[in-house]
């Protein structure tokens, strides 16, 4: 892959349609490197921020320690899943410690852990 991807990085990934021939690129937040497997536990991100639910957190470029995203977006805590590392197209950047703490606390509250 060549990219140095770590916890709380935001990356762009390929999401294949059911025909497995065409795909869309979508951003995700890396939650955990799923070692020893070749995938990551991630949270979906959407730029459709006109309506926010209780489990969604707004992020913009102020939330980044380094890098940036094209537009203000939301992290959707209810949409956690595993993605293969080879699906990562590019790295947007890493969130600040403050943004990471807010997401971590909200995630624990949402999943009651």
UniProtKB/TrEMBL annotation:
<dbReference type="Pfam" id="PF02452">
    <property type="entry name" value="PemK_toxin"/>
</dbReference>
<dbReference type="InterPro" id="IPR011067">
    <property type="entry name" value="Plasmid_toxin/cell-grow_inhib"/>
</dbReference>
<dbReference type="GO" id="GO:0003677">
    <property type="term" value="F:DNA binding"/>
</dbReference>
<protein>
    <recommendedName>
        <fullName>Type II toxin-antitoxin system PemK/MazF family toxin</fullName>
    </recommendedName>
</protein>
<dbReference type="InterPro" id="IPR003477">
    <property type="entry name" value="PemK-like"/>
</dbReference>
């Amino acid at each position: 892959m060549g990219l140095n991807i770590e916890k709380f990085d935001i990356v762009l990934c390929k999401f294949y349609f059911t025909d497995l021939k065409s795909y869309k690129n979508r951003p995700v937040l890396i939650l955990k490197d799923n070692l020893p497997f070749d995938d990551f536990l991630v949270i979906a991100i959407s730029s459709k921020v006109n309506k926010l639910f209780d489990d969604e957190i707004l992020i913009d470029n102020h939330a980044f320690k380094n890098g940036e995203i094209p537009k203000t977006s939301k992290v959707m805590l209810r949409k956690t899943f595993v993605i293969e590392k080879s699906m990562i197209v590019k790295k947007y950047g890493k969130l600040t410690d403050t943004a990471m703490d807010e997401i971590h606390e909200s995630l624990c509250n949402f999943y009651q852990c």
